[in-house]
Write a structure and sequence with these properties.
It contains seven helices and three strands. The chain is mainly α. The chain is elongated.
């Protein structure tokens, strides 16, 4: 995820201070890793340095003074360029799950890799249940539903890979050790 671009997108709706940006991020991207306040403010600092946002006034609502930020014309142009870019499919397999199975085959026998795959399948299945409960809850927002659908689709793909790989573990182990 591109945190700077997400913050630019949130500022496109109007001026906000860091606390509002963090809250809006966490609400609009409910299944993403929540942003830390330090990350919001350090990102705003870089965006300001690069001329993509500018201070738009100070607020004090019963607490410390907060600087609101506004999107600049350059910031809007950067956001538009980012939104127009198609994300290329990942060219490499960069997954801890995949790496663990390969390493298990290198250092142990096929049974160890198989046991890991079974345990991982169980964890994925449990997470699918959790996400299904989130998306079918009466209080689920459309943000929750769309984010859960995204995660469910990825978990489903992982589960298909886990099933296929379980069927291939013995042959793969022989190939790795030949």
């Amino acid at each position: 995820m591109s945190t700077p671009h997400v913050l630019l997108g949130l500022l496109a709706a109007g001026n906000r201070h860091g606390y509002e940006l963090k809250r809006a991020h966490d609400e609009r991207l409910p299944r993403a890793r929540p942003l830390a306040f330090g990350q919001v403010y350090s990102t705003l600092g870089r965006l300001q340095r690069d001329g993509l946002v500018a201070p738009a006034g100070q607020e004090r609502e019963g607490g410390p003074e907060r600087t609101a930020y506004a999107l600049t014309a350059d910031g809007r142009a950067a956001l538009e360029r980012w939104l127009a870019e198609v994300e290329p499919p990942m060219p490499y397999v960069a997954s801890t799950l995949f790496a663990k199975v390969v390493v298990a085959l290198l250092v142990d026998d096929a049974d160890r890799a198989r046991a890991y795959l079974v345990a991982q399948r169980q964890a994925h299945t449990e997470r699918l249940r959790e996400l299904t409960a989130v998306k079918t809850a009466p209080s689920a927002s459309l943000d929750d539903i769309v984010a859960a659908d995204f995660a469910i689709a990825h978990l489903d793909a992982d589960l298909r890979w886990l099933r296929t790989t379980l069927d291939r573990v013995a042959d793969w182990h022989r190939e790795v050790h030949s």
